[in-house]
From TrEMBL:
Enzyme class: hydrolase
EC number(s) recorded for this UniProt protein: 3.2.1.40
Cited SUPFAM superfamilies: Six-hairpin glycosidases
Gene3D superfamilies: 1.50.10.10, Galactose-binding domain-like (2.60.120.260), Immunoglobulins (2.60.40.10), Maltose phosphorylase, domain 3 (2.60.420.10)
Entry GO MF terms: alpha-L-rhamnosidase activity
Pfam families given in the database record: Bac_rhamnosid, Bac_rhamnosid6H, Bac_rhamnosid_C, Bac_rhamnosid_N, Ig_Rha78A_N
Bacterial alpha-L-rhamnosidase N-terminal domain location: 197-367
Protein name: alpha-L-rhamnosidase
Catalytic activity, reaction form: Hydrolysis of terminal non-reducing alpha-L-rhamnose residues in alpha-L-rhamnosides
Boundaries of every Alpha-L-rhamnosidase six-hairpin glycosidase domain copy: 483-819
The organism of origin for this protein: Sphingobacterium haloxyli
Keywords, ordered alphabetically: Hydrolase
Transmembrane segments: none
């Protein structure tokens, strides 16, 4: 009946035929009972669900299969793309892939008619499986972005004031002679729009530099903050696409936009913290709205000279100094239709950077913490404790009087007097609000954030009446990437460590992966390849990794250097180039791209960055002396006798050259995959030369150690393959001896710690890893928790003189997921197509549960001490490695019902997709 009802609206017999074709051919004629066993879900277009604004006209399509059966594999797929969401006419179809025989469900590339920019399309995916089932997805949509300047039509960049060209300085030194003496006001913009028809479609494209908040009729259009994400603004900026169809009212409407400086412009205001000086220009706006009405007509609203501008009530905004709001500057109704803007100024037309649609998730308020305790320092000063150190802002509800000022100092730590201590996290940083009239307000800063657990509130009344703080909340902000994994075990300390590291990740995951959420907020690159394996088991950061690699491409110099931070906003002019040029940092341009390809299966990670990789390797070859690299920071923040910082224990050149060799090893594999045989031969040849040079320079044959013999000096060569096979056992024995001689303490730092863990895992010494990190009486994760840390700290010893919320050093999280949880891939597998679950230390950690949303679907492994439970998604398979036993029963069946074999690793059982209970 449903089909007949819909057919009544079709115009001709051809449409009727086509509708029946789509409905029955795509759904299949295999019967209702069969079709219920297979579902097509989580369809992604260019890696996003129903994306608004993609940067290509040949998008990729990925999907997951769900089934209540076992051993389910895709055999064929079919994709339809149409300009009509109902798929009612053949003329609307721009691509019919027809049935394609393959099990590939990731990144299938569009191959139909030419698509147009700024246009909405619809897609449906159908799949057949190896059991004869056929299923189709729900209708998906995607909107192509504005891919050229011409696509923006008449829209122009508008502002209130232009920074003189002589002051534009997109890459200054931290102590440069950049002098901006004038204080520039932040702008707000208004545009009135009359709507006298029903709006059926409204697509808005907006870029506000550095950040913006968009309002329609006084209401924000979404809950995102710090839009759009920051990037290398002299190369490109991001715009965001919105569907505003339900935002318009009949009659007069108003578009309102506030701007913040972000990293586009760091205001040089005395009395506020300023990490560095950067001035790409002053805040500006570009916007285009295309409204389609029920009569088929269209209207385009462009940012142009007809827009109005006024000084913003945000009188100061800095990523490093905080934010001030003066309610006296502008009526709170300024963005509503009834407001009279005749006294406002006309905007100024200016130039701006090239634009690209933002593809990463926006930054959002992800968690909120109420005050757990308050300490009244005096009648006008109180300190609130939110219980968790996190990146965020303070939201305050308060009652005051005309002219009253409230000032808030967020901080990670407290000083001896119980007040906010910003000494080592960037000072002074504060939020300030000035009342324009008596009353109650609810306020949060818009265009800045900080890392804090405490907030010191100073009440500065204009008269004798008191200011009342009614409610105060810490709002944790981070990138909106979906959580895709979890870890729990019977070991309480390990669970606490996982949470500790997770807060370090969450607090430094915005539109870049930062080092810390307060004093620097810079994208130090070594973290990406060292912490990336931990992050990807917990969050869907495929697009954020792609953005990080894009930042590297844009920050790469003409000589080929990939600097230590990207986007690169500053050259630190102390210590020479040591804080700009370290191979262990710049090599994320190669290592992260390779890792991400293996994790997600997107070949674009390789093709988009291949030229950057080769250019960087050419740069490193030029820096090498007899094929050995000596420059850079080395094993930053290792545990030595001195205050942490520069590498203390490892001979200079070992970490840099080991990474150099590892790069060449990876590039050889990438070149082979991309069928670049010439470069593969070159990489292999250079790799052999580096191998020989490294061993000649650093290996001590008599003592079987490299360089100083530190844990890092031994572990890195072992892991990357620089140790001759005849010497591996001796070098490993010396590594283990050093750990044992230190009573299982570790000394490795930022660079070496992950490689120490990996080398021990390769040797099957998870028992040592356990012992090294189980003791909380010496510097390490447990020690940080004992010292009161609630997020991963910059130093192993949780020193109060450094950051207490940092991204580096969290490598043990990877061990939780891959060794205790056992989750990994078989050699040669891409995107967890062939999962390998091989849990370790089952007799020590009695219970553990690990979950992971792989590109093919949800994976779970659980051991409750007696039995195992395994979930394997459709269209993938698993090798499960358990202790040897002939008595296992899998879903009630004897082991003989499954393919298995006994190996040195244990009993390897081959499982197809499905759920399995094993005891």
């Amino acid at each position: 009946m449903k089909i007949l009802y819909r057919m009544k609206g079709l115009k001709n017999y051809r449409s009727v035929f086509f509708y029946i074709f789509v409905t029955f051919i795509l759904t299949g004629l295999s019967g209702c009972s069969a079709s219920k066993k297979l579902h097509v879900e989580n369809v992604l277009i260019e890696g996003r669900a129903n994306p608004l604004g993609i940067n290509t006209l040949t998008p990729s399509f990925s999907w997951q299969l769900r089934s209540d059966g076992h051993n389910v594999m895709q055999t064929d797929y079919r994709i339809l793309v149409s300009t009509d969401g109902d798929f009612l006419t053949q003329e609307a179809i721009v691509w019919d892939s027809d049935w394609v025989t393959t099990d590939q469900s990731l990144y299938n590339i569009y191959n139909g008619q030419d698509l147009d920019g700024g246009t909405t399309y619809y897609a449906r995916v159908a799949v057949k499986d190896n059991h004869g089932n056929v299923a189709e997805s729900a209708v998906q949509s995607f909107h192509t972005g504005l891919l050229s300047e011409a696509d923006w039509g008449e829209a122009q960049w508008i502002t209130n004031e232009k920074l003189p060209d002589s002051l534009v300085n997109p890459l200054p030194l931290s102590s440069s002679k950049l002098r901006i003496d004038k204080s520039y006001e932040l702008p707000v913009f208004r545009k009135n729009v009359n709507v006298d028809k029903k709006v059926t479609s409204s697509i808005a494209y907006i870029s506000g530099l550095g950040h913006y908040e968009l309002l329609i009729n006084g209401q924000p259009v979404d809950s995102a903050v710090l839009q759009a994400g920051w990037t290398k603004y002299d190369k490109e900026a991001y715009y965001v696409v919105y569907d505003l169809a339900d935002r318009w009212q009949q009659g007069k409407n108003t578009i309102g936009v506030l701007l913040g400086n972000g990293f586009y412009y760091i205001p040089p205001i005395k009395g506020r913290y300023q990490k560095h000086k950067v001035a790409f220009g002053l805040p500006k706006l570009k916007m285009k709205v295309v409204n389609t009405y029920d009569d088929g007509s269209k209207e385009t609203i462009d940012s142009d000279s007809t827009w109005k501008v006024h000084q913003s009530p945000i009188t100061f905004s800095s990523m490093y100094g905080g934010e001030d709001y003066d309610e006296r500057v502008l009526s709170t109704s300024w963005s509503k239709p009834e407001y009279d803007d005749t006294a406002w100024d006309n905007v100024l037309l200016v130039d701006g950077p090239p634009l690209r649609a933002q593809e990463t998730e926006p930054v959002r308020i992800m968690e909120r913490f109420g005050s757990q305790a308050v300490n009244r320092i005096d009648e006008r000063t109180r300190v609130y404790d939110f219980g968790q150190n996190a990146s965020g802002i303070v939201h305050v509800e308060m009652k005051g009087h005309q002219g009253d000022t409230v000032r808030i100092y967020p901080a990670e730590l407290l000083n001896d007097e119980g007040r906010a201590n910003q000494k080592h996290s960037g000072s002074p940083y504060y939020y300030q609000y000035i009342f324009a009239q008596d009353g109650e307000i609810s306020w949060r800063p818009r265009f800045t954030y900080y890392g804090f657990r405490y907030a010191e509130v100073r009440l500065l009344p204009a008269g004798n009446e008191e200011i009342e703080i009614q409610k105060i909340t810490a709002e944790h902000i981070r990138n909106g990437a979906q959580q895709v994994g979890s870890f729990q075990s019977s070991d309480t300390l390990f669970n606490q460590i996982h949470t500790l590291i997770n807060w370090g990740i969450k607090s430094n995951m915005v539109s870049v992966f930062t080092d810390c959420p307060h004093r620097e907020k810079l994208g130090w690159l070594e973290q990406l390849h060292l912490m990336g394996p931990s992050v990807q088991y917990n969050f869907d950061v495929e697009r954020l990794f792609a953005k990080s690699l894009s930042d590297m491409r844009q920050s790469q110099t003409e000589e080929g250097l990939v600097p230590e931070t990207a986007p690169e906003y500053v050259h630190f002019d102390w210590g020479g180039d040591v804080f700009r040029d370290s191979p262990e940092w710049g090599s994320s341009s190669i290592i992260l791209a390779w890792y991400a390809y293996k994790w997600y299966g997107n070949k674009a990670f390789l093709t988009d960055n291949y030229d950057m990789m080769k250019k960087y390797m050419h740069y490193l070859k030029g820096k090498a002396k007899d094929n050995v690299l000596y420059h850079g920071l080395g094993d930053w923040y290792d545990l030595g006798p001195e205050r942490p910082g520069f590498s203390q224990l490892t001979t200079p050149g070992i970490t840099a050259t080991a990474i150099y060799y590892y790069n060449l090893k990876i590039l050889s594999q990438i070149a082979a995959l991309l069928e670049d045989n010439e470069y593969k031969s070159y990489a292999d040849s250079l790799q052999n030369k580096v191998y020989q040079a490294f061993n000649e320079k650093f290996y001590d044959e008599r003592d079987a150690v490299y360089g100083s013999g530190s844990q890092t000096a031994l572990a890195m060569p072992l892991y990357v393959g620089l140790v001759d096979e005849a010497n591996e056992d001796k070098v490993l024995a010396n590594l283990i001896k050093d750990i044992a001689d230190r009573d299982t303490s570790f000394t490795a730092g930022d660079i070496g710690h992950r490689y120490l863990l990996q080398a021990l895992q390769q040797a099957g010494r998870d028992d040592l890893i356990y012992a090294m990190h189980k003791d909380d009486t010496r510097p390490g994760y447990g020690y940080q928790i004992r010292k009161g840390a609630t997020a991963l700290t910059e130093s192993w010893a949780a020193l109060p003189t450094v950051s207490n919320n940092h991204f580096m050093l969290g490598h043990l999280m990877e061990w939780f997921h891959t060794r205790l949880g056992g989750l990994g891939q078989e050699e040669g597998s891409i995107a967890y197509k062939h999962i390998r679950i091989a849990p370790k230390m089952l007799d020590v950690v009695k219970q553990r549960t690990v979950t992971y949303e792989s590109p093919y679907g949800p994976v779970m492994f659980e051991h409750d001490g007696e039995r195992f439970h395994v979930d394997i998604p459709a269209n993938s398979r698993c090798t499960l490695v358990l202790p040897e036993s002939a008595d296992y029963r899998i879903n009630g069946e004897k082991l003989d019902a499954y393919e298995y074999r006994l190996t040195d690793a244990g009993l390897e059982i081959q499982l197809g997709s499905g759920q399995y209970n094993i005891k």
